[in-house]
Description:
mainly alpha; two-stranded antiparallel ribbon
Amino acid sequence: MIGLDGFPCSFAESIWGRGLIDAINTLPRSERYRPHVIEAHAEHIFDASDIGLEATQNRNRPASECKSVGEISQLVAQCERLARSIDGLHKNAVDALGRELIDMHQFQSTLANFTEAASTCEIGTSEGLDQTRKHRAVAIADAAGEVFVEITGRLPTLTINPTTSKTSGIWFDFLTLVFNVLQVEASPESQARRVKELAKEKYPS
Length: 205
C-alpha cells in the first residue's frame, strides 16, 4: 500500500486501513479485541471492496448484443488504424523499437490475427442484462455486516423515526462510516436495511 506521503506503508497505516480500523473501534465490545484482530476485520471489509470493484468492471458485466457488436466494431477499427501506423514507420523507428526487444514483424502478425478474429467473432446472447449496478456497495455492506456481528455479538438492527422516517442506530452509523472511508457512492440506508433482513436468515436465533 502507498501512504499519503507517497511511500509504501502497511495496511493499518494507509488512509483506508486507518479509517476502517477507527470505524470498527466505534462498535460496542471492540475494546475486547487486540489490535491485530481489529486490523484483520478491517482488511476483510477492504478486500470485499476490491472484489466488488472488480465486479463492476465492464469485462465482468453483460450488455446487449447491439452494444457488444458496437464495441467489437470500434476495437477492429482501432486495430486497423494501428496497423496502418505501423506500416508507415520508417526504418530508424523500427530499429529503435527493435532495440527495446519489440519484434515489429511478430507484433504485426499478432495484430492481424487478432483483428481477423475480432471481425468474425459471434456475440453470444446474454443470459440477462446486468441489473445490479451496486456490486461494490453490496460486497462492502455484506462484509461490514459480518464484522458487526463478530465484534458486537448482535444482529444488525435499525431504528426508524415514525415521523421523519429517518434511519439511525449503531449498525447504520457503522456502515455509514465504512462507506465514507471507502468512498462508496451508494445509499448506506438501503444497504443497511438489506443486510439487516439477510442477517435474520443468516444468523437464526
